[in-house]
C-alpha cells in the first residue's frame, strides 16, 4: 500500500446539521459497510449536541483550543472532559451535549466499530499513554494494521519506511504501521507548547483479508 500524504485543510468541510461546526473526513474504511473505522477533524464553534454513533467507540483529541465538556443528556449525567493534547476514549452510543469551556476548538475524532476493529491512539508531545478503543470479536485472528499520523505542528517522520518525510501543520499520512512504536513515529520541528500536541498517531487493526 502506497502511503497517502495530504492536508486536512484541503479536505472539503461538511457542515453539521445544527450549524455548530464542520467536519473533514481524512480517511474511512472503504472495504465494509458500515465502515469499521473513520478518522475526521471537526471545527466546533458553539455548544450543541454531539452526534450519536451506536456500536462505535470513539477517541477524541483536542488539537487546538481549550477544553470541551461532554455531558450525557440523562439524569445523573456522565461528564467527560476533552483536554488539549490528551486522547480520550468514550462510547459513541451515548447522547452527549458539548460545552466549549474556552471558545472554538479543533478536534481529531476516531470512530471504530466494536467487534470489527481495534485501535490505539498516542499523542506525541502531549499525553503519551496509548488509549485503546474498540476490539475484535475473535482472538488470535490475523490482523492488518493501518497507521494514520495527523500533524498539529510541523515535523518529520522517523523510524519508518518513510523516515525523513516532512509533515506541515495540518498534514496527515495514511499507510501501514511497519511495527514501529507509535511514540517514536514523529519528531516535531519545534518544542510542543504546554498542554499541546505535536501529532496524533492512530493505529487501527482489522482482520486481514482472507487468502484467495
Structure explained in plain terms:
It comes from Achromobacter spanius. This is HutD family protein. This protein has strands at 4-7, 14-15, 21-28, 37-44, 48-50, 56-64, 68-72, 79-82, 88-91, 96-100, 105-113, 116-124, 131-136, 143-151, 155-157, 166-167, 171-176, 186-188, 199-207. It has no helices and 19 strands. It has 212 residues and is mainly beta. The mean pLDDT is 88. The strands form four sheets. A six-stranded antiparallel beta sheet has the order 1-17-14-19-12-13, with no helix packed on it. Strands 2-3-4-11-6-9 form a six-stranded antiparallel beta sheet, with no helix packed on it. The radius of gyration is 17 Å and the shape is globular. 0% of the residues lie in helices and 51% in strands. A hairpin with an 8-residue loop joins strand 3 (21-28) and strand 4 (37-44).
Q: Structural class of the helix and strand makeup? A: mainly beta
Helices, by number, come to: 0
Mean pLDDT: 88
The N- to C-terminal Cα distance equals 18 Å
Protein name: HutD family protein
Pfam families: HutD
InterPro entries: RmlC-like_jellyroll, RmlC_Cupin_sf, Uncharacterised_HutD/Ves
Organism: Achromobacter spanius
